[in-house]
Amino acid sequence: MKEKIISKASELFLKLGFKSVTMDDIAGEMCISKKTIYKYFCNKEVLIEESTSLVHTQVHQIIDSIVAKNHNAIHENFEIREMFCEMFKNNIDSSPIYQLKKHYPEIYHNIMSQEIDLCSQWFRDNIAKGIEQNLYRADLNVEVYVKFYYILIFHINENTVSEKEAQSIELEALEYHTRAMATAEGIVELEKQLKKFTT
């Protein structure tokens, strides 16, 4: 039952926002009593912590599955961005990350400290792959570009209220990031991906 509550809560938090969803809403959606939820979670904050942890795990499992498909480095980045768009497609009015930072800053900082480490490693691996495939320049300072990109992405998500707007800016950031690193061959692949994912 605990896992079912976390799963339903995660779904509602991402769809309607961390602030607006109440324990009553979750109980109503599941056709259980609020008392049953409190049997497993002493308050809403604990449930949010568990829910964000679940989403964090799911996101990284999906990223791993995309990486395992062995697309080229630029295609891989676009696939992952598409996955995030799909994941948050029902929440175009309010960015979940923005809400989490605004209303539950401690939970936000805990999850972000893990995210930065994991995302930095993924960005690092992607750049190494792109250099190997001659899509990114061999003379890149990889650590600097990793830092540039995660500052860009996290800044967008932390400071953009609308999820729809955040996704639009993220696409611009991905193009900016890729063009800054790309070889002539990489630019051709970038244009191909932009055409595919923006039409």
Question: Mind explaining what this structure looks like?
Answer:
It is a single chain. This protein is an all-alpha fold and 199 residues long. It has one domain (49-198): Tetracycline Repressor, domain 2, CATH 1.10.357. Helix content is 79%, strand content 0%. Helix 6 packs antiparallel against helix 7 (105-132). The radius of gyration is 19 Å and the shape is elongated. The model has no long low-confidence stretch (mean pLDDT 88).
How many distinct helices? 10
Protein structure class: mainly alpha
List low-confidence stretches. Answer: none
Taking the sheet with the most strands, its summary is:
none
Characterize the overall form.
Answer: elongated
Q: Overall mean pLDDT score?
A: 88
Termini gap:
42 Å
User: Portion of residues in helices?
Assistant: over 70%
Tell me the Rg in angstroms. 19 Å
The CATH architecture assignment turns out to be: Orthogonal Bundle
Helix/strand order = HHHHHHHHHH
User: What is the fold named in CATH at topology level?
Assistant: Tetracycline Repressor, domain 2
Number of strands: 0
Pfam families: TetR_N (PF00440)
DNA-binding region: 22-41
InterPro entries: Homeodomain-like_sf, HTH-type_Tx_Regulator, HTH_TetR
Organism: Flavobacterium cupriresistens
Question: What are its keywords?
Answer:
single chain, 199 residues, mainly alpha, Tetracycline Repressor, domain 2, elongated
Fold blueprint:
Elements: H1 2-16, H2 23-30, H3 34-40, H4 44-68, H5 73-87, H6 96-103, H7 105-132, H8 142-159, H9 163-181, H10 184-198
Helix pairs in contact: 1-4, 4-5, 4-7, 5-7, 5-9, 5-10, 6-7, 7-8, 8-9, 9-10
